[in-house]
Amino acid sequence: MERGVLLDRWSDLIRPGPARLAGTWRTVLAVLLVALVMLTFRMPFLAIGPFLVFVLSQRNLFLSRTVAILLVPILAVACLIVYGVAAVAWDHAWLRFVLWIGIFWGGFFLMHVLAEPRLIVGPLCIVALVSYAFDEYPYPNMILDRLGWIWAMVGVCVACTFLTQWLTGLPTAREHLRSEFLRLAKLVEEVCRARSLGHRPPEFDSGELKDAHEMAAKLGKVHILSHAQSENCGVVLGALGVVNALAREKGTEDPALAWAVVADGVRRLRERALGTAESCEIPQVEGQGPASLALDAIQQALAGLGNPGASRPDSKGLVAGDALTNPIHVEFATRAMCATIGCYLLMSLTSWDGIHTCMITCVVTALADRFERDRKQRLRLGGALIGGLMGVFAFVYLVPQVEGIAGLLAILAAGTALAAWVAHGSSRISYAGWQIGLAFFMILLQSPHAETTLDVIRDRWIGILLGIVAMRCVFASFQSLPSGACDRPGAMAA
Questions:
Q1: Is 415 in contact with 444 (CB distance < 8 Å)?
Q2: Fewest CB atoms within 10 A around its CB: which of 54, 223, 281, 361?
């Protein structure tokens, strides 16, 4: 890959923008509020609270409210599972082990067959987080006490995050989608303009077009957008994706004028979709090159506007139709379960509870698509390394120089700002921002009392690495099905 292309991609990852600046400021303020409340009341899970702010700090009100609402059933299901295991198998380690096998296998199976597998990730993460506590705490009441504190922590985080969003004015779903649509359409137009001038097209994450398309579809399902608006948005974004891909093709050179016509077509398509132009005529270009194909895509999108249902895809059910007949689902669940239980056995046999992140790593990276799974593993490990190094630097060199809560909050704000900046960036790197923040919080906010050890980040690094190794080993072995059979596109977890 050319050096200039790499620089363009990295500049896109760190490029400032109004939405990114506002999201970062909003997240920092909410994290400071949560940290103050949790420190005041000496609540446990001090590092998890600020991290939960990242989960709740979505890009619009609809997504934030949806995440907050879903946290209630997620916590309820996780608590019922943990309480059930404690009631049945507290004094029987072998039975508890069998139950964990069944719970994780069932969870991974549902993740692979459900249309929204992210609903299963939350309960499994909590179960993985609490499972090691059965060997650490001698009484069931201590685990129930921890579950109660988790509910209190979630309440604090939701209240502080929503207060911050109300004060700073988080955009609604319609406003966010409109701004994203304008930004992406202008970026595709810039790509075509650069092609017409013989320059290298500017890089941007084409996956954002898919994200915007999915957002429009979801808003249509919950009636925030009308069916026609959702369909029209999908038609235009699909055409923009085609034009962007054709404009980046190499090996064929169309006349510069042809790509200038395509750029004008993109602009007119955007104006027509937004209702600022009643109609538009786009001239044709000679030949059958990429520019001509791009204009055909624009013409088809123009013809599809205002005709809802013409390109409506078949609706998908909540559960895959072959859930009970396709062996791929069983194999995926078995492999992911083997990796998770293997990590659990290693953690239990070595009495090394600090590496419990190995189990959580197996859960959150259990993606059906192999490439997405590998990418998320790299983001998780890279984010943990960066955030851990930031935390070590702050812990060793900055914290000893400050006195009082104000200095600690200033250091916390600086680290949170960097993590939030990454989290509110491109979808290619946003998950890394979450991991940077969590690793940083785990060092700086180990407990309500002052800590002088760095064992927590060492154990986290080792746990994440063990989880990644376990997942890669089980998905690279036992090839009973054809290669790639477990990689069902589209069934990805969070």
A1: yes
A2: 281
Indicate the length of the chain as a whole number. 494
Nearest of 365, 375, 380 to residue 335 by alpha carbon: 365
Residue pair 44/89 in contact by the 8 Å Cβ criterion = no
Between CA 292 and CA 90 the distance in angstroms is 69
Task: Report the number of distinct structural domains present in the chain.
Answer: 1
Contacts of 408 (CB under 8 A, 6+ apart): 399, 402, 444
Q: Single out the residue of 238, 225, 224, 227 nearest to residue 185, CA to CA.
A: 238
The proportion of the chain whose per-residue pLDDT surpasses 90, expressed as a percent, equals 49
Question: How far is 493 from 36, CA to CA, in rounded Å?
Answer: 32
At 341, phi and psi to the nearest 5? -70, -35
Sequence-ordered list of residues with C-beta below 8 angstroms from that of 40, at least 6 positions apart, any chain: none
> Residue 229 domain-assigned?
yes
Q: Using DSSP, state whether 212 is helix, strand or coil.
A: helix
Token pair for 182: 């304008």
SS3 248: coil
Mean pLDDT of the chain: 85
Determine, yes or no, domain membership for 205: yes
- Secondary structure (3-state) at 319: strand
Q: How far is CA 104 from the centre of its chain?
A: 21
Q: 231 in a domain, yes or no?
A: yes
Q: Does residue 219 lie within any of the structural domains?
A: yes
Q: Which domain holds residue 188?
A: 173-304
How far apart are the C-alpha atoms of 312 and 304, rounded to whole Å? Answer: 11
Element (H, E) at 436: helix 430-444
**Amino acid at residue number 363:** V
**Which residues have CB under 8 Å from 176's CB, separation 6+?**
59, 60, 215
Which residues, 6+ apart, have CB-to-CB distance to 407 below 8 Å? 399, 401
Instruction: Count how many Cα atoms sit within 13 Å of the Cα of residue 424 in the half-sphere of its side chain.
Output: 27
3-state SS class at 340: helix
- Which residues partner with 114 through β-bridges? 319
Give the pLDDT confidence of 319-373 residue by residue, as tens digits.
Answer: 887 888 889 999 999 999 999 999 999 998 898 988 989 999 999 999 888 888 9
- DSSP character string of 105-125: HHHHHHHHHBS-THHHHHHHH
